[in-house]
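Before the break, one more example. Copy the sequence into your notebook; we will annotate it together after we see the structure.
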Amino acid sequence: MSSSQPAPVNPARVFQYMGSQVRIHADASDTKGQFALVEFVTRPGLEPPMHTHTNEDEMFVIIEGSMNLIQESGSRIVAAGEAGIVRRGTPHTFKILSPFLRTMNVFTPAGFEDFFRKLAGDTPPAFEQISQVAAEFGTRLALRQLAI
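Here is what the structure looks like once it is written out:
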């Protein structure tokens, strides 16, 4: 196998990632690479650092709870029944405003669902490992957060 090919990724559909429950409803193999549909159940304190996807757009559809979706251009509250869209190349994060948050995220094109699979497990990986894996998937993590 060439060193330029990514390492095999666990094909699991349900797993823990950084303290959150993840369920992959559709991945690249299901959609011919067009999109991935990933469900997250998470709670305050488990939000990601500010980050930028260079390969995919991301849409958050809030099923339960609410969050403050933060982008360079500003922020807005997104609650159950609403959606927020982040275009590729846009630095973003979110702050959970409810006791827990359940979202369905659409990544287009597909592929970023394997980032979560690669870092799955009960023990959160170190920031350096997360940053390295993110880079493998075309995502940059910010070293500092925007003011929330």
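The first helix runs from residue 28 to 31. The mean pLDDT is 91. Try to locate both features in your own notes.
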